Amino acid sequence: MYDEPILAGIPAVVDSRPGTEMLRELVTHLRQNRTPVRGEWIRRITEADWLTAMTSEEVFAEATSIYDSYVDVLETGSVEALQAYARNLSERIIPRGVETHEVVGIVLLLRDVLARSLFKKYQTDFSLLNRVLDIYEPAANRIANTVAVGFVQERERIIREQQEAIRELSTPVLPVRERLLILPIIGVIDPQRARQLTEQLLHGIRRNRAKVVVIDITGVPTIDSKVANHLVLTVEAARLLGATVIVTGLSPEIAQTLVNIGVDLSKMNTVGDLQGGIEGAERLLGYEVVPIKEANVQAATHG
Amino acid sequence: MQVPILRHGDYLIASIQSALTDSDLLALRQSLVQQVGSARARAVIVDVTALDVLDSFASRTVQDLAQMIRLRGAETIVVGVQPEVAFSMAQLGVRLEGVETRLDLEEALAYLAGKRAPGKRTREG
Predict the structure, then answer these.
(1) Consecutive 10-residue runs of chain B (125 residues): their mean pLDDT?
(2) CATH classification number, B5-115, choose in 3.60.15.10, 3.30.750.24, 1.10.8.60, 2.60.40.10
(3) How far apart are CA B1 and CA A109, in angstroms?
(4) B interface mutation test: which of A240, A263, A284 has the most B CBs within 10 A?
């Protein structure tokens, strides 16, 4: 229905023929004034103390690319290229600590700087200025939106990935010997993590055909009654699967908490530290760790 | 559905293959307690691998079964409890006290064999 792609989906405020011409004029104006406008834009970015994480050459290079894709979007009305660029840019600058307000601020600055240059150009003809702005403003807002959304989405993607990584890392179930698993827990256990821990442990027992499991909680600062009870249930459940659980590294604080809140720990096997726990587990499995020298002597006397 | 009870040397093996109604469970308990005497069994292995759920009644029945079998002079080993089942049993407070639990049938047989070997009583002893 509309010739000019930039107006697609936006109600036409001017009749279409002059609109196309105006757009062409706008784009030409922005291309011709690229150097001064870009210079002004970068000056204001520096003034606002943004992008301090990047060198001025980098800022200049990125600003140039953004400026050019900005004008391209105005001309073609298609934001796809800009979207891809914004995603790529976010990927590069997020690890360097560039904040959301900086990115949004910079795009809005460009919008303002460009608008100023339009005011200057059309200052003598107010109605013409109005019509140019009718074309320019919706497009500029759309661009600002695209870049901001792209940046935030990239951030969220990174956060999601990291959460996933933390979740996976938080409860490793490690086979150390045949039929012996170790479950080192570090950090605070919240109910969700406790649930996940139980699941990992019980499935780990089945998968590895474990007979003994050592849960080491040296790295757990505190524990509340809910989590303590959950731990006891996990130990019970592991026994139902035919595995013995040894809990090691209970800190003095946790020991006091557990007794004070009256958790029934009579069924729980506890050993002071991880070393003792592994030794105990080896005994249960029928291993004996002997220094090689002694082992040789034993072998010699038997042989 | 009736649960087949197999004889394997000194042991009885009851392998539960599908969800059981309460009356099936009671029937299983009854026949196990009976056969443990008639077969002169030393141990009863109850395999629950196929069960995804074990409600409170079933859990209690297994626990009671173990007590009864102990009174009849044999030992009960429950094998193949699924991880989810194990946790919900723990939550229900079913501890299966006095019942040995093992990962699967193979483990239970290994356990029984190991138990018998060192304590083998000979006439001279």
Answers:
(1) 85 89 90 89 92 85 89 91 90 82 91 74 43
(2) 3.30.750.24
(3) 77
(4) A240
